[in-house]
Amino acid sequence: MTRKVIITVAPTGSIPTRKDNPNLPITAEEIADETRRAYEAGASVVHLHARDPDTGKPTSDVEVFRRCLAAIREACPIITQVTTGGGATTLGLSPEERLMPVKELRPDSASLNAGSMNFGRSLFQNTPDVIELYAQRMKTLKVMPEFEVYDLSMIQNVDYWVRRAGILDPPYQFSLVLGVMGGIPPTFKNLLALQESLQTGDTWQVIGIGRHQIPMGVMGVLLGGNLRVGFEDNVYLSKGVLAKSNADLVEKAARIIRELGFAIASVDEARAILPLLNHG
Ligand code: ZN
């Protein structure tokens, strides 16, 4: 049977600005509109950050997240994932504050950053206490953690602090992030090493940063994984050409994936593939 590949869209993130790409969505309406277009192009999951509608700066305000999620849920039936990392380096939030939108809004999934690192010039702090706390809370809330790993050591963190500790029943969903300054560099050998460190049954996607988004993502697809595209990680459609919409990036990924002989997962198919905790 043709394998179904899940495309996640990350339309906004916390770092890019309209100087990087004037088409970056900022308000709840803009983010929902971009999400709907990405959904129509083949995305079945949206990874969400919120922005202050007046300043465009990242915010952890639960009400802004609430408006975003409501607008998205109105626009399309896509699987929702909320960040718990976006406020760490840019806003200096505490772990509890970073968890607030997840507690209040119960998305299908939330990111769980699986270790501490230098993220560019900033310290991105996710100690074992935080990893355990988030895994426990997300289990209770029935929100699937997506373990964001930026290096091999972070897979070991998940295995030691969560899997071996029995906090959460496997399988787990991972993002293998390649190309953040301070994280593992984006090479095929590195991706292979990350993929080989996962456990049988785990589901995973590749997040390639910048120009590595599509090549690394497609390599991930060939290795049996899924991929994420969107302005959070890359604002260019091709060298020197800004994407007009996140949907452009989804369309490009979907076209290549289909050419390689795979199919694109619908939302229902993605729900069946991912180890979501809010089934039934
Ligand atoms: Zn994010």
Can you walk through the features of this model?
The chain is of the alpha/beta class and 280 residues long. The chain has a single domain, classed as TIM Barrel (Alpha-Beta Barrel), CATH 3.20.20.70. 39% of the residues lie in helices and 21% in strands. It contains 10 helices and 16 strands. It has an 8-stranded parallel β-barrel, surrounded by 7 helices. It has a two-stranded parallel sheet with strand order 1-16. Helix 1 runs parallel beside helix 9 and helix 8 runs parallel beside helix 9. It is globular, with a radius of gyration of 17 Å. It starts with a strand and ends in a 7-residue tail after the last helix. The chain binds zinc ion. Zinc ion binds next to loops.
Give the structure's gist in a few sentences:
With 280 residues, this protein is α/β, with parallel strands linked by helices. 39% of the residues lie in helices and 21% in strands.
Keywords:
alpha/beta; 280 residues; single chain; 39% helix; eight-stranded parallel barrel; globular; TIM Barrel; 16 strands
Layout of strands and helices, then pairs:
Blueprint: E1 4-5, E2 7-9, H1 28-41, E3 43-48, E4 50-51, E5 58-59, H2 62-75, E6 79-82, H3 86-90, H4 95-105, E7 109-113, E8 117-119, E9 122-124, H5 128-141, E10 144-149, H6 152-163, E11 173-178, H7 188-196, E12 203-208, H8 213-222, E13 226-229, E14 236-238, E15 241-242, H9 246-259, E16 263-264, H10 267-273
Parallel strand pairs: 1-16, 2-3, 2-13, 3-6, 6-7, 7-10, 10-11, 11-12, 12-13
Antiparallel strand pairs: 4-5, 8-9, 14-15
Helix pairs in contact: 1-2, 1-9, 2-4, 4-5, 5-6, 8-9
